[in-house]
Amino acid sequence: MARDTTDFRPIEGVDELVEHLAEGNKPRDKWRIGTEHEKFPFYVDGNAPVPYGGEHGIRAILEGMQEKLGWDPIIDDGRIIGLVEPTGQGAISLEPGGQFELSGAPLESIHQTCREGNAHLAQVREIAEPMGIRFLGLGGSPKWSLADTPKMPKSRYEIMTRYMPKVGTRGLDMMYRTCTIQVNLDFESEADMRRKMQVSLKLQPLSTALFANSPFTESRPNGLQSWRGDIWRDTDNQRSGLLEFCFSPDFGFADYVEWALDVPMYFVIRDGHYHDMTHVTFRQFMAGAARNEVPDGLPTMGDWANHLSTLFPDVRLKRFLEMRGADGGPWRRICALPAFWVGLLYDEAALDAAEALTSSWTYKEVMAMRNAVPEHGIAAPFRNTTLREIARDVLVISRMGLKNRGKKNRDGYDETSFLNTLDEVVARGTTSAEEMLSAYHTRWGGSIEPVFMEYAY
């Protein structure tokens, strides 16, 4: 998230929190696609991580991008930590370990998404390459330890860094050493949100498998295909993971609100200062728990919006749905991830087919799949088959949905070609992670250093 929200309207009751989510309902002609992708900056000389400060650091990249784009700076305690397009059409932000993120504009087609990604990567390369910096498209940091990894001067991350070791064993790895590709998608009603939430929760482990791309940690194979996926199994299970209550046939906005109310907070912002609120839930905050701790200690709608942004389930509900299962990856994956989900969720016939395919899948079965995927990828078992075979069926559905949308580029091609990289995974029967591992044991000669050349932007 590029910028935390400031909305000073007081909260009068829980109904307002439910209405906040319901305000995301949009007619189909207003549905858009918002793609986010993260990448690791590194110095070409020595494949070392890039710190925030210095003449050739993250801050210098942001300042160069600001000068080039004319975007507004995002300032935290006097330091630039991101950029936002003046009309809200996109933003650049920093993850805790310096991962460079583009939060894309809400766009109408995957063609536009790819053009946006191409333009961003060209722009950031123009600024970074003279500094000797490139960017790595993987789901997990392949070389640097936590001690090696720089820390970005962002107030919310300072609070999270103190809190994470209290609630799980992998939170700091998640923050500092992982990257993702995500897509944000709209819904037209509570019922439409429910269908999309349930289908996408059930298929999120498949997304993790298809995009598995983090097999190395600290210069060695880590025994996994998606180290990032494994990290999420013990980051903070109060606020992340597979949400069983969402599988209910009458799941709705109010159920998500009730869950979110009982998750511990991270912070509130008052007069530009971040106050640590990890000791209370939002429900306790509404009951007055912070009256004597922070100025204006009563909750606002901005506090609620920020709280929703600190929840990390596999599919996150805000005033849109965020697909959160995929590892970061090379350029083709940046286009493939939104194509996969748009094909499944933005066409009625495709959504009907995806819903029919997954309707009998239980929470326990999906959880077992989710637990198996980090190690086994598309070979993970499901019932009497594997995810590779499930993927064949799901990609047929997604392709149908993209074809039905009929969104063509200037050359007359629709969006279906963006699934080709995923078709290749299924046809080969091996993930990107397995391809890297094969290279490591053969032509890379037991070194992970070549990954910085072959998977760099």
From TrEMBL:
<protein>
    <recommendedName>
        <fullName>Glutamate--cysteine ligase</fullName>
        <ecNumber>6.3.2.2</ecNumber>
    </recommendedName>
</protein>
<dbReference type="InterPro" id="IPR011556">
    <property type="entry name" value="Glut_cys_lig_pln_type"/>
</dbReference>
<dbReference type="Pfam" id="PF04107">
    <property type="entry name" value="GCS2"/>
</dbReference>
<dbReference type="GO" id="GO:0005524">
    <property type="term" value="F:ATP binding"/>
</dbReference>
<keyword id="KW-0809">Transit peptide</keyword>
<comment type="subunit">
    <text>Homodimer or monomer when oxidized or reduced, respectively.</text>
</comment>
<comment type="pathway">
    <text>Sulfur metabolism; glutathione biosynthesis; glutathione from L-cysteine and L-glutamate: step 1/2.</text>
</comment>
<dbReference type="InterPro" id="IPR035434">
    <property type="entry name" value="GCL_bact_plant"/>
</dbReference>
<comment type="similarity">
    <text>Belongs to the carboxylate-amine ligase family. Glutamate--cysteine ligase type 2 subfamily.</text>
</comment>
<keyword id="KW-1015">Disulfide bond</keyword>
<feature type="disulfide bond">
    <location>
        <begin position="114"/>
        <end position="335"/>
    </location>
</feature>
<dbReference type="InterPro" id="IPR014746">
    <property type="entry name" value="Gln_synth/guanido_kin_cat_dom"/>
</dbReference>
<dbReference type="GO" id="GO:0004357">
    <property type="term" value="F:glutamate-cysteine ligase activity"/>
</dbReference>
<keyword id="KW-0317">Glutathione biosynthesis</keyword>
<keyword id="KW-0547">Nucleotide-binding</keyword>
<dbReference type="GO" id="GO:0006750">
    <property type="term" value="P:glutathione biosynthetic process"/>
</dbReference>
<keyword id="KW-0067">ATP-binding</keyword>
<comment type="similarity">
    <text>Belongs to the glutamate--cysteine ligase type 2 family. EgtA subfamily.</text>
</comment>
<comment type="function">
    <text>Catalyzes the synthesis of gamma-glutamylcysteine (gamma-GC).</text>
</comment>
<keyword id="KW-0436">Ligase</keyword>
<dbReference type="InterPro" id="IPR006336">
    <property type="entry name" value="GCS2"/>
</dbReference>
